[in-house]
Amino acid sequence: MRGVELVDWPELPENMELELEAIALHGLEENFEVLESLSLQEHQELAQEISPAAVALHRYFLAQRTPNFMNPKKKTVTNRPKVGRNEPCPCGSGKKFKKCCLH
């Protein structure tokens, strides 16, 4: 929930908002009074919703990522010329590329 507070999350579909609320119930201090008023059985039933909610949110955001991120074998095109391992590093350090920026 700290991550949600730190980053400006995009608007979620209603069903995903419900998933986030299942996590927020246990993850935000402002909800602790609500949790304390529940019976042990009610608390345990609500706690069981956290894991499926996290998985659902993960799947939702995974589907939102770019195709290039999802397919790491796909090569991206760059305008930079390819630097050989034994050539001087383009950063200007004077070291060979393999000992500098290539690591």
From TrEMBL:
InterPro entries on file: SEC_C_motif (IPR004027)
Transmembrane segments: none
Pfam families attached to this UniProt entry: SEC-C
Protein name per Swiss-Prot or TrEMBL: SEC-C metal-binding domain-containing protein
Origin species: Agaribacter flavus
